[in-house]
């Protein structure tokens, strides 16, 4: 409904009238279609655009009784409070490191897996590996984290294996120095197969005659990979890389909330889990919204920078 | 000449053996990867079927169940909390998926129209939400303001349409032959009839993907339940699982007859219940997974391609 008004109020009076009439005609003609659009419009306004409007409370002292608009403005107070708290440096660093290491390990791993799968000659075997490596992607996060908690506990699987090598059993999830390894290692397990799909698809699009020609020229498999496969894969790699850079400063709250505890906050507490604790559990709505807005601003800036860079260097870009 | 030729031959054989070594290495690596991916689930399955006392004394990996018992499963099925969670999840999955798929199909039909005056603004409205969001807290407050907090609808309506699925479905709808739709219009069919009688049946495969995507999403989802529900009787299975697995909070779970042998050896049975619940909650996904995997892959591809 809002977008309708926007369209009609922009141009000058004369045009406006004709536009209005056109719109009326269109509404009448496509009555059924607009009727179908109502749930969608209502949904997106209620659950996407109203929350966007609700971001305003990060510049206010939100009082549920006064509502968003009438709550008093406080400028950048909440941002200041966040920047001056010990949590700012800690959560920023943890978010950056967790996402950076995830990208560092996960991104090449998916590409290498795709390349290795591509070298397999037995199609059936290849499909079987794909089926099994995609599987963890469909298992619920709660179960995955439950397994991690179980396996890393003092009397868990990992300790009982390590005890054969004389390692003292410990509860690994209470050790801050191990959190990143556990988080990223399990992340690799969850997503390596699924992330390789997009690269495999790009590989299957390569013209086989290129390989034939290379073989005639005497290029071995290594050379073929270097000079045919990788260049063909480059655009996909770049686009995926930009997308990943855009997500570099956002670590989802869910897995962290399932795995962390106060003992490991030093390395495990990220911006989103802090927002959850402050906002949902602590009811500091304005403050936590400000912290969340800070995170999305960084993410968006990173995306724009990565896109610009890639446009300059390679002509590939998202928009 | 002959020297040159023989050296060429040597090079070729080296290449071939080099290739063979690589192939062997590659196959071994892939088998190893398969084992790593599947073993954790196998371990849980074996443990859930093992005799709890043997399991407690056992050290290291399991290659088969230790002894054999279905006690864990019978304890799970007798447990009111877990069963209630299971039924709740079934409700959320069935009702949520039906509403989601219906609304997504209707919306996709609207966006797939060619000659709609408001098509562009509507499309923009959807696309923007793929890049921007208000964040967790404004979303949480909005759901609360709408009075959905602590109702079952809080797990259904706030995420009822996925913008990504909507775009994928729209792409599929756009490929439906125009002639089919035109001839139906001439016969006097309205848009609802066209959508449900022509477009949806033509796009069966993509519709199936949508159903599965929404269903698996609902089955696995837990976070919205965590922030919106206070009432334990409305908890989905995943949230109960979280209590069992992560918070290790089994007081209400155990429900063992006091003074019984099982009560005394609570620790052993705790582990058994844990593993059995994981198997039960994951089994439905594992059962349908092999059949639907390729559709998911297709869906993943459609979503990642630039338009």
What does this entry look like structurally?
- Chain B: It is found in: Cell membrane.
- Chain B: It holds the Pfam family BPD_transp_1.
- Chain B: Keywords: Cell membrane, Membrane, Transmembrane, Transmembrane helix, Transport.
- Chain B: The chain crosses the membrane at residues 21-46, 90-110, 122-141, 153-173, 194-216, 272-292.
- The complex is a heterodimer of chains A (319) and B (307).
- Chain A has two domains: 2-75, no CATH class; 79-314, MetI-like fold.
- Chain A is built from 16 helices and no strands.
- Chain A has helices at residues 2-9, 13-29, 31-54, 67-70, 77-84, 86-119, 123-134, 141-152, 157-162, 176-204, 208-216, 221-246, 253-259, 265-268, 271-281, 285-314.
- Helix content of chain B is 75%, strand content 0%.
- Chain B is mainly alpha-helical and 307 residues long.
- Chain B starts with a helix and ends with a helix.
- At the A-B interface, helix 1, helix 2, helix 3, helix 6 and helix 7 of A face helix 1, helix 4, helix 5, helix 6 and helix 9 of B.
How would you describe this structure in keywords?
heterodimer; A: 319 residues; mainly alpha; MetI-like fold; 2 domains; 16 helices; 0% strand; B: 307 residues; 15 helices
Distance between the termini of chain B: 57 Å
Q: So, the CATH homologous superfamily of the largest domain in chain A?
A: MetI-like
Number of domains of chain B: 2
Rg calculated over all Cα atoms of chain B: 27 Å
- Report the top-level CATH class of the largest domain in chain B: Mainly Alpha
The total of helices of chain B stands at 15
What structural class is derived from the secondary structure elements of chain A? mainly alpha
CATH topology of the largest domain in chain B: MetI-like fold
Strand content of chain B: under 5%
Transmembrane segments (chain A): 32-50, 98-117, 138-162, 182-204, 225-249, 285-306
InterPro entries (chain A): MetI-like (IPR000515), UgpAE/MalFG_permease (IPR050809)
Subcellular location (chain A): Cell membrane
Membrane topology (chain A): Multi-pass membrane protein
